[in-house]
Amino acid sequence: MKITKYNEFRNISGNKLRELRKASKISQQDLAEKLQLEGIDLTAKEISKIENNKRLVQDFELFAFAKIFKVSADIFNQK
């Protein structure tokens, strides 16, 4: 059984991602460029979808976010 939603959300990490990105004062485009340097091909539009809980997040993407923001990946499961 494939799960694509959890309590009407596609992910639970989008809010934390937005919070970290804004605290770091980088745009979605800047984050997309940093991710590309890590070998993750996400566009600013896809990052927007993640932040708005409209796109699933792969585990390797989550670890790349954690690396870029220098935090533990565990922080993304906190509200």
Alpha-beta classification? mainly alpha
Low-pLDDT ranges: none
**Total E-strand runs:** 0
Largest sheet: none
CATH architecture: Orthogonal Bundle
The coarse silhouette is: globular
CATH superfamily: lambda repressor-like DNA-binding domains
Distance between the termini: 26 Å
The radius of gyration computed from the alpha-carbon positions, rounded to a whole number of angstroms, is 12 Å
Distinct helical segment count: 4
CATH fold name: 434 Repressor (Amino-terminal Domain)
Number of domains: 1
| Share in β-strands | under 5%
- Would you tell me the overall average pLDDT? 90
Helical content band: 40-55%
Q: What is the name of the CATH class?
A: Mainly Alpha
Secondary-structure element pattern, one letter each: HHHH
